[in-house]
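Query protein
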Amino acid sequence: MRAGGQERQEQRARVAEEARRREAEARARPEVGHRDRPFDPHEILGVARGCSKNELRRAYHAQMAQYHPDKVAHLGKELRELAERKALEINRAYEMLS
């Protein structure tokens, strides 16, 4: 039982590190397209300012259920890339607010 828990923790750490790496790469690229507005984590997660941690967590999970790259793995390349960018935005917004 412990080995499974430790494996999950290690996997979560790898996923978090990969997300941080991708976010750093995204920041290094010039912003184009819909990025005319400043990054607003509340808007991305669809929560009000001053929301509770529970509301924030629920909004995060709802957004990730739609845009997680594993959920769209069967779709075309462009949609997978869009979902990956959106998932990075969602993760960044959640980290900023939590």
In short: The first helix runs from residue 2 to 28. The chain has a mean pLDDT of 82. DSSP finds four helices and no strands in the chain.
